[in-house]
Amino acid sequence: MAEIQWNKERLYKLVQSKLGDSLFIVVSNREPYVHTMSGGKIKCTRPVGGLTEALDPVMRASGGTWVAQGTGDADRKVVDERNRIAVPPEKPEYTLRRVWLTEDEVAGFYLGFANQALWPLCHVTFTPPDFREDWWHTYKKVNKIFADAIMDEIGGRKAVVLVQDYHFALLSGYLKEQNPDLTVGQFWHIPWPAYEVLRTCPWHEEILVGMLGNDLMGFHTRSFCNNFIESVERSLEARTDRESSAIVRQGNTTVVEPFPISVDFDSLSRQAGTKAVENEMENLTREFNLEGKYLGVGMDRMDYTKGIPERLMALDKFLEDNPEYRGKVVFIQAGMPSRTQIDTYQEIGQRIDDLMSGINEKYGTDSWQPVIPMMRQLSRETLNALRRLARFCVVSSLHDGMNLVAKEYVAARVDGDGILILSRFTGAAVEMQDALLINPYAISEFAGKIKEAIEMPEAERRRRMKNMREIVAGNNIYRWGGSMVSRLISIAGV
To answer: Where would a tag sit more exposed on the chain, N or C end, judged by fewer CB atoms within 10 A?
Structure first.
């Protein structure tokens, strides 16, 4: 039987034919469109990021309601009396319902428990979680605020709700308490840890109970699903069925399945092939003197899970071991600072700056700097130009649920060339076996892979890239959205 090719049109048809009169709701912390004041006028922008990039096309296809925190300084000015606005502004296709949080609530819920307790707990990168009780209480409070907003949005209608990520571990349970007839699913965008790690959280049982409010619980990989099922088996009184990947607790069944997330391959490929991107490639080549050089790129949020210090140490080792490549290799580290209010993020930013400066001082000359930082918001044209120019792209995450940067690089390589150096500790490594797979902690081996990427014959580079492009094209964002939505609809029985 031929594999279904998912695209936007197929997703539209799925929703229109299967959802019936049920309202479709997506919930996330981050909003897909932000309204800000600029020069006395209101400007609408779409934030760059894996979650937003992944879900916006799904929502456009579904025509439902997206519930998220309002964060823009002009967000309140554009909503109606129910805190709603139709988006995207140029061609409205769905509704954005904004939820307002106080500074204290954001500090405890988002900066506190979500990102200093759950994030390090799930990523297991040897950064200890901080389990502060006041953060936990605020996290619970905000999950209830979102539950109330969603119930208000639903009214008395039938609804299918898809919750996003680790900010809302308790939300589905709260929704089911208010309306057991709702169909609720959740996708967890980061890894799920082994039980021995999870149980260090004082409230892990309450978190698991909240997540078992879902009818469908999705993770990136089968191993994360298995970790979750084992966590339930060892923490709660529940019946688990490994064969059907189902958990039954107090009459509610939660199906636990992998849904590897991806990118909009066709759209990214089109964007990367435009004249504007080719012009930007020429501009960057001139600006950074890249002609005749081997270019490597890293394109990450500044986060301690991304293995950026490790890649810089590997680059240092490569230049130390291979002096013949000094002056011939340039590495551009592009990425936005992230969560800068948190000490551990300030520390990783400083460490990255110090490593880049150290490499440039050690090897650089008047005419060549081995590392070029681009730590700012970059346009799509610039990002795609960097992807197109790069002989190799480094994704060296110490632990990652999936990693869309790897798939974006592959989607942008419309020329069929380029090498992906990819951490074994990413979900993407399960699919992309034609990348050069690395252990980012093994610095000498990592340095060797940089050399291998530079010296690999063109025919081998193209063979590998062709295989990876076929995989990403088939497993695109519409397949992720279509698979998860259709599974949720089938559970709903609408």
So the answer is: N
Q: Report whether pLDDT(373) > 90.
A: yes
Q: Dump pLDDT digits (tens) for 88-113.
A: 999 999 999 999 999 999 999 999 99
Residues in the chain, overall count: 494
Token code pair at residue 60: 């456009």
- Do 8-262+477-492 and 265-474 agree at the fold level? yes
What would the two tokens of residue 202 be?
């004082």
Are the CB atoms for 392 and 293 separated by under 8 Å? no
Position 379 scores a pLDDT of 92
- Which amino acid is located at 185 in the chain? G
How many Å apart are CA 78 and CA 81, to the nearest integer? 10
Q: How many CB atoms lie within 10 A of CB 250?
A: 9
d(CA 55, CA 66): 10
Q: How confident is the model at residue 51 (pLDDT cuts 50, 70, 90)?
A: low
Average pLDDT, the chain: 94
Q: What is the mean pLDDT of residues 473-482?
A: 91
CB atoms within 10 A of CB 19: 20
Which CATH code for domain 265-474?
Answer: 3.40.50.2000
What's the Cα-to-Cα distance from 438 to each of 122, 202, 307, 425, rounded to whole Å?
21, 34, 11, 9
- Output the six-digit token pair for 260: 């590897």
- Residue 3 has a pLDDT of 64
If one compares 493 and 372, the residue with the highest pLDDT of the two is 372
pLDDT at 464 over 70: yes
**Main-chain phi, psi angles of 352, to 5 degrees:** -65, -45
Kind plus residue range of the DSSP H or E element containing 443: helix 443-455
Quick one: the chain helix, strand, coil %, rounded to 5?
50, 20, 35
In the chain the first and final C-alpha atoms are separated, in Å, by: 26
Superfamily of domain 8-262+477-492: Glycogen Phosphorylase B; (3.40.50.2000)
CA separation (Å) from 7 to 105, 245, 268, 317, 405?
39, 28, 13, 43, 21
Distance CA 173, CA 222 (A): 23
Question: What pLDDT is attached to residue 1?
Answer: 42
Q: Are 399 and 428 in contact (CB under 8 A)?
A: no
Contacts of 220 (CB under 8 A, 6+ apart): 189, 191, 258, 259, 260, 261, 401, 402, 427
Residue 2 is predicted with a pLDDT of 52
| Domain spans in the chain, listed from the N-terminal domain onward | 8-262+477-492, 265-474
CA torsion 79→81→82→85, rounded to 10°? -20
The one-character DSSP state at 31 is -
